[in-house]
């Protein structure tokens, strides 16, 4: 890795940080030990530069905490632990990809079943698949059309609308999938248009044999994004973000691999040489 001496300011310029931050890296084990001159000044070498580049590269993909732990493990002589941390980060990224794929597949399932039932994005929230209306969703006699839906449907009305038992809606609510409001005074559940949409999605996913724990994150993302189209766009953005992170992890791992290779090749000689000349 060479014998050229580097000052803290040289490393600071490479990383775009302060000289104090370089000292902090050395003190916390992010950088390998640095010998000191008789007057107490640290003397850095090319191996410190390579370690710094590896750390900064790892941080871009794995995050600062993981990058710090990896470099500390390397400099503590526990390369196996460092690689285990790398593996764990890749496993977590893979888990996120699987979750993203499941959400995208669920969205396609809902869209396909809604299209087959003639239940497009602008469909009547009170319509059953095929255009029929649930008997419980009809407006009360003498009431202005649409007031029942605007005020919210009761649990029995939603159950009739979807063709399920009211107990199923309660189970979905207890699982955190539905969050209907409550009438003041009576405490009766009231399902607004968004609640009916959520219940319809739960029904479709349950019919497609999705377990309840897998449905909740899909609904949470749907609520955050504001609709199925927005959810699809959010999933695309998330997929692109994961791809960028995967590339960054690959680049960081390459820098770590180079640092480990040069470190192994030197056998600690660079550090010994610095200590002998300090």
Folded structure, characterized:
It is a single chain. This protein is mostly helical. It has two domains: 8-92 and 246-277, Orthogonal Bundle (Multidrug-efflux Transporter Regulator, Chain: A, Domain 2); 94-238, Orthogonal Bundle (Multidrug-efflux Transporter Regulator, Chain: A, Domain 2). The protein has helices at residues 8-15, 19-27, 46-62, 64-75, 79-116, 147-151, 155-162, 166-174, 193-207, 212-225, 228-266, 269-277, and strands at residues 181-182, 189-190. It has a two-stranded antiparallel sheet. It starts with 7 loop residues before the first helix and ends with a helix. Residues 1-48, 152-221 form the HTH merR-type domain. It holds the Pfam family MerR_1.
Rg, alpha carbons: 30 Å
Question: How many distinct helices?
Answer: 12
Q: Please, what is the oligomeric state?
A: single chain
Mean pLDDT: 81
Main pleated sheet? 2 strands, antiparallel
Beta strand count: 2
Fold-level CATH name of the largest domain: Multidrug-efflux Transporter Regulator, Chain: A, Domain 2
Through-space gap between termini: 17 Å
Low-confidence stretches: 119-149, 269-278
Helix % is 55-70%
Give the structural class. mainly alpha
Strand order of the largest sheet: 1-2
CATH class of the largest domain: Mainly Alpha
The total number of structural domains is: 2
- Give the percentage of residues in beta strands: under 5%
Order of helices and strands: HHHHHHHHEEHHHH
Outline, from the CA principal axes? elongated
Keywords: DNA-binding
Region (Disordered): 112-148
Pfam families: MerR, MerR_1
Domain HTH merR-type: 1-48, 152-221
């Amino acid at each position: 890795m060479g014998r050229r001496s580097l000052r803290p300011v040289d490393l600071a310029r490479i990383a775009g940080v302060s000289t104090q931050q370089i000292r902090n890296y050395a003190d916390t084990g992010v950088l390998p030990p640095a010998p000191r001159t008789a007057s107490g000044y640290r003397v850095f070498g090319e191996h410190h530069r390579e370690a710094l580049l590896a750390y900064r590269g790892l941080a871009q993909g794995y995050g600062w905490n993981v990058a710090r732990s990896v470099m500390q493990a390397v400099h503590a002589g526990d390369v196996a632990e460092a690689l285990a941390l790398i593996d764990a980060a890749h496993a977590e990224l893979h888990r996120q990809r699987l979750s993203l794929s499941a959400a995208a597949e669920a969205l396609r399932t809902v869209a396909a079943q809604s299209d087959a039932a003639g239940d497009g994005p602008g469909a009547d929230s009170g319509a059953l698949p095929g255009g029929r209306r649930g008997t419980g969703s009809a407006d009360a006699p003498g009431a202005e059309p649409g007031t029942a839906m605007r005020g919210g449907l009761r649990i029995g009305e939603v159950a009739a609308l979807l063709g399920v038992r009211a107990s199923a809606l309660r189970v979905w609510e207890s699982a955190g999938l539905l969050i209907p409001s409550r009438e003041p005074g009576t405490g009766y559940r009231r399902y607004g248009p968004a609640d009916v949409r959520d219940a319809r999605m739960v029904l479709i996913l349950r019919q497609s044999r999705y377990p309840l724990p897998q449905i909740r994150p899909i609904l949470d993302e749907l609520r955050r994004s504001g609709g199925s189209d927005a959810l699809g766009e959010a999933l695309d953005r998330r997929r692109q973000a994961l791809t960028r992170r995967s590339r960054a992890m690959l680049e960081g791992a390459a820098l770590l691999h180079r640092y480990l290779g040069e470190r192994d090749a030197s056998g600690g000689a660079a550090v010994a040489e610095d200590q002998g000349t300090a």
